[in-house]
Amino acid sequence: MTEKEWFDTWFDTSYYHVLYKHRNDEEAALFIEQLTKLLNLPKEAGVLDLACGKGRHSLMLHQSGLNVLGVDLSRNSIKAAQENAKSGLRFSVHDMREIIPNERFAAIFNLFTSFGYFESSTENEQIIQSVHAMLDEKGMFVIDFMNARKIIENLVLSEEKIIDDIHFSIRRKWDKEHIYKFIDVLDGTKSHSFMERVQSLFLADFKKLLNGKFIIKHVFGDYQLNSFDGEESDRLIIIAEKI
User: Fold this and answer.
1) % of the chain residues with pLDDT over 90
2) What gap in Å lies between CA 114 and CA 52, rounded to an integer?
3) Among 181, 196, 46, 185, which Cα is nearest to 114's?
4) What pLDDT, in 10s, does the model give residues 147-184?
5) CA nearest 74: which of 60, 55, 61, 93?
6) What is the DSSP letter of 100?
7) What angle do CA 226, 145, 230 make, to 5 degrees?
8) Where does residue 196 rank: exposed (0-12), middle (13-18), buried (19+ CB within 10 A)?
């Protein structure tokens, strides 16, 4: 991994969590409830929340009766998540491209567009290989990604936000491969600049990545698990089974 990639810097700042504090926990809880019903995992089955952030989905998965390990590359996020650690709910710093030694899971969840952060498709393949290796036989892999087509067609090029007296100036662009978000922060007299970069991956790209290792069982387009529509859906949610 190159030194100080964009996610090393941005995800470890308090400003990242301020900017995204509006996330709808009620909607996320309903999503997790429906997912766990669909997957019908045994009680206390071991699952992995891959790129878990501060662990809000991990906590919800644990509340649904599962034995959860949440991992993330951000040390500050994991430090915050560990405040909720308990029996059956663990957290650890980990790079999603690598296999976690001595761990196997009935299901692995990669939620809230936590894929496509890296520069090359080779690193995407590394993630798929690692996930495949860590899953039990016929284990389930859940990917919750943005609907890149809809995002690109409706890209908001610039906007201003004031949250907790912090001024965020945001610019976006698409270079045919990545969707960029440039974030300038003014916090009192302090100013900072950050960047997000996510690969513009489509359903066909995920099908290619998963081919030979997984069978796609379901494709949904929102957190209510409605069918996916490439033009209209807000999300691209893939449920795949290990082969």
Assistant:
1) 88
2) 8
3) 196
4) 999 999 999 999 999 999 999 999 999 999 999 999 99
5) 93
6) P
7) 55
8) buried
Helix-helix angle 25-39:56-63, to 10 degrees: 50
Look at residue 193 and tell me whether its pLDDT is greater than 80. yes
Mean pLDDT across 182-195: 97
Q: What is the DSSP letter of 228?
A: P
Type and span of the H or E element at 187: strand 178-187
Token couple for 39: 């997957």
Domain limits, the chain: 23-146+201-242
Q: Which two tokens stand for residue 74?
A: 């951000």
Phi and psi at 29, nearest 5°, equal -65, -40
What is the Cα 169 distance to its own chain's centre? Answer: 24
Main-chain phi, psi angles of 209, to 5 degrees: -65, -40
One-letter amino acid at 72 equals D
Strand partners for 92 = 71
Q: Are 49 and 100 in contact (CB under 8 A)?
A: no
With beta carbons less than 8 A apart as the criterion, state whether 16 and 123 touch: no
Whether residue 1 is predicted with pLDDT greater than 50 in this model: the reply is no
**How many angstroms separate the CA atoms of 218 and 1, rounded?**
33
Query: Tell me, which fold does domain 23-146+201-242 have in CATH?
Result: Rossmann fold (3.40.50)
42-62 per-residue burial string, b: 16 or more CB within 10 A, e: under 16? eeebbbbbbbbbbbbbbbbbb
Of 76, 111, 107, which Cα lies nearest the Cα of 91?
76
Determine the Cα–Cα distance for residues 58 and 38; give it in Å rounded to an integer. Answer: 17
Q: Could you count the other beta carbons within 10 Å of the beta carbon of residue 7?
A: 21
